[in-house]
Structures are given as structure tokens and as C-alpha cells.
């Protein structure tokens, strides 16, 4: 798909700008740290991740889907479905897989080492959606490529899934205010900012819930849904108890965090054994 990069970049920048303007016009919470300092770190990690992916992966998920189709590899290349149905089912299956990947990254200490950088952001806004360690991006890309080869979805399905995932992740990480009635109904269709913000609470019984990025159904189906934070959205603390302050936005600090002691592992394990 020759225009894949242009399509994805255009939508990415468009959603980022819209969410940033919305955050300025109708913020949900007051930020605790310098926004320019955080944005430099969070957007800086995007640059690092882009370089790493381009250097390590000769093809990405859409290219892998084309290759699987050409070589008749994967489930959807062995069965015949109407095009629209294949796109819908494949996108939903990929989204469910990302839900379980996210959940396992909380449960397995090795992967939590990588993923906790995302949670160590002391504030919650649109750039938090982009804040992932390069090693987590590499692991996620390997998992995604394996899924594409197993499922063999149409390249269009993969492109739609990736565009939706990136766009909805920026939406549900945005520090924006939605009318409560609209949020109540909207979260049956897509993960909303109020729904996902609970996942960024410092409380382990809360950050081990609401794992979905795009479709909200998996949390309800697999028992990890939490409606609201215990202290309410205005008073809840964002981040991880072991870390805080401006240092969490320092690019070098973010890159070395996986190699620091896993001080939050016992709390994580306790919560997995006994959360409601």
C-alpha cells in the first residue's frame, strides 16, 4: 500500500493537534508538571522509537499482511469471507490480542519493567499515549507481526486497525472533559478518557484494570473493567508511587528505567492475586 505512511502520518498529526487543542479548551484535570518539559520527553521518545523500528524491521504489519496473502499464509487466507466481514472480524481480533498483550505486560515482571515507563508519566494527556519504551515497541512489533502471520488478515484490515488504534489511544489518553452522560454511553463503543484514566492511577487495584485502548468490550468480557477511580477523577493521583516529579519526563531517565530495580513488583503481584 504505497500511501500507507502518508495516510498514517496525516491522521496521526491531525488527531494529535485536535486533542491538544481540545485539552486547552476543556481540560479534565489540572496538570502537576511543566507541560512543555513533559512534551519534549514524550515526543522525544516517539522519535527514538521511530528510528528503532525503521532500523530493526524491514517490513511492518501492513507489509506482513501483503506477504502473507501472497504466500497464502494465515487463517483468513484459508477461508472465504466477504471483504467487509473479514475486515471487521480481523480488526476486532487484533484489538482483542492487543488487550491481552497489554494485560500480560502488567502480569509478567520482565514486560512490566518495560511497560512501567508508560505509567510513570506523572500527568495524563495526549502525549502519554505516545510514551512507550523502545524495547516495549520492539516486543510489541514482534507480537503484532506474529499475529498478522497467524491470522493472515487483509492489508486493509491491518491498516484500519492500526489507524484506529493510534487515533483512539490519543483520544482516550487526552486530558479532555466529556459530558458525563455522553461518556456513559460512548464507553460502550470506544474507550473514553475517563475510562482509561483509571488505568493510570497510582493505585495498583486501579492501574490493573481497563486495559483496552480501542474497543471497550474486552475489559467487560474478561472481568477487568472498573467504572470510576475510588477518589474521583479530580483527586486521583496519576503515575506510579515509586516515581514522581519532573525527572519522569527526562528522556534519558525514561530510557534507563527498565534497568532500575523492580520496586513495584510485589505490589503488582499482590494486586493480581486479589483485585476485585
Task: Give a verbal description of the structure.
- This protein is mainly α.
- The protein has one domain (4-274).
- 61% of the residues lie in helices and 0% in strands.
- It is built from 14 helices and no strands.
- It has helices spanning 4-25, 35-56, 61-70, 83-107, 109-119, 134-151, 155-172, 180-186, 193-197, 204-207, 217-221, 232-235, 251-256, 265-274.
- Helix 2 crosses helix 6 and helix 3 packs antiparallel against helix 7 (155-172).
- It is globular, with a radius of gyration of 18 Å.
- It starts with a helix and ends with a helix.
- Residues 266-276 have low confidence and may be disordered.
The overall pLDDT average reads 91
Strand content: under 5%
Shape: globular
Structurally, the number of domains stands at 1
Largest sheet: none
Q: Can you count the helices? A: 14
Total count of strands:
0
State the end-to-end CA separation: 45 Å
The string of secondary-structure elements, in order, is HHHHHHHHHHHHHH
Structural class: mainly alpha
Helix content: 55-70%
User: Low-confidence spans: pLDDT under 50, at least 5 residues?
Assistant: 266-276
User: How big is the Rg?
Assistant: 18 Å
